[in-house]
Write a structure and sequence with these properties.
There is one protein chain. This protein is an all-alpha fold. Helix 2 runs antiparallel to helix 3. It starts with 9 loop residues before the first helix and ends in a 5-residue tail after the last helix.
Length: about 60
Protein backbone atom coordinates (compact mmCIF):
# COMPACT_ATOMS: atom_id res chain seq x y z
CA UNK A 1 0.00 0.00 0.00
CA UNK A 2 1.30 3.39 -0.91
CA UNK A 3 1.26 6.31 1.50
CA UNK A 4 1.30 9.04 -1.14
CA UNK A 5 -2.18 9.63 -2.66
CA UNK A 6 -0.51 10.95 -5.82
CA UNK A 7 0.77 7.42 -6.47
CA UNK A 8 -2.74 5.92 -6.48
CA UNK A 9 -4.30 4.98 -9.80
CA UNK A 10 -7.89 5.06 -10.98
CA UNK A 11 -7.98 1.30 -10.40
CA UNK A 12 -6.91 1.80 -6.78
CA UNK A 13 -9.74 4.26 -6.20
CA UNK A 14 -12.21 1.98 -7.96
CA UNK A 15 -11.15 -0.94 -5.76
CA UNK A 16 -11.73 1.26 -2.73
CA UNK A 17 -15.16 2.24 -4.03
CA UNK A 18 -16.10 -1.44 -4.37
CA UNK A 19 -14.87 -2.13 -0.84
CA UNK A 20 -16.93 0.74 0.53
CA UNK A 21 -20.00 -0.50 -1.33
CA UNK A 22 -19.51 -3.94 0.21
CA UNK A 23 -19.18 -2.29 3.63
CA UNK A 24 -22.47 -0.40 3.05
CA UNK A 25 -20.71 2.99 2.89
CA UNK A 26 -22.33 4.44 -0.27
CA UNK A 27 -21.16 8.01 0.19
CA UNK A 28 -17.51 7.02 0.55
CA UNK A 29 -17.93 4.66 -2.41
CA UNK A 30 -19.28 7.57 -4.44
CA UNK A 31 -16.39 9.85 -3.48
CA UNK A 32 -13.79 7.22 -4.35
CA UNK A 33 -15.52 6.46 -7.64
CA UNK A 34 -15.58 10.18 -8.50
CA UNK A 35 -11.83 10.31 -8.02
CA UNK A 36 -11.41 7.17 -10.13
CA UNK A 37 -13.51 8.76 -12.88
CA UNK A 38 -11.50 11.98 -12.67
CA UNK A 39 -8.28 10.01 -13.18
CA UNK A 40 -9.70 8.05 -16.12
CA UNK A 41 -8.69 9.54 -19.47
CA UNK A 42 -11.55 7.99 -21.48
CA UNK A 43 -14.79 9.99 -21.03
CA UNK A 44 -17.02 6.97 -21.75
CA UNK A 45 -15.27 4.87 -19.11
CA UNK A 46 -15.46 7.75 -16.62
CA UNK A 47 -19.20 8.08 -17.29
CA UNK A 48 -19.62 4.35 -16.68
CA UNK A 49 -17.82 4.62 -13.36
CA UNK A 50 -20.01 7.52 -12.30
CA UNK A 51 -23.16 5.63 -13.32
CA UNK A 52 -22.10 2.59 -11.30
CA UNK A 53 -21.62 4.66 -8.13
CA UNK A 54 -24.32 7.38 -8.10
CA UNK A 55 -24.43 10.10 -5.48
CA UNK A 56 -26.43 8.62 -2.60
CA UNK A 57 -27.78 12.07 -1.67
CA UNK A 58 -29.66 12.21 -4.99
CA UNK A 59 -30.74 8.57 -5.03
CA UNK A 60 -31.85 8.21 -1.42
CA UNK A 61 -35.53 7.51 -0.89
CA UNK A 62 -37.26 8.98 2.13
CA UNK A 63 -39.41 6.71 4.23
CA UNK A 64 -42.03 7.56 6.81
Amino acid sequence: MTRDPADLTAADYLDGAREMTAANRPYLAHLLAEEAARRTPDPATAAGIRAAFPDPATTRKETD
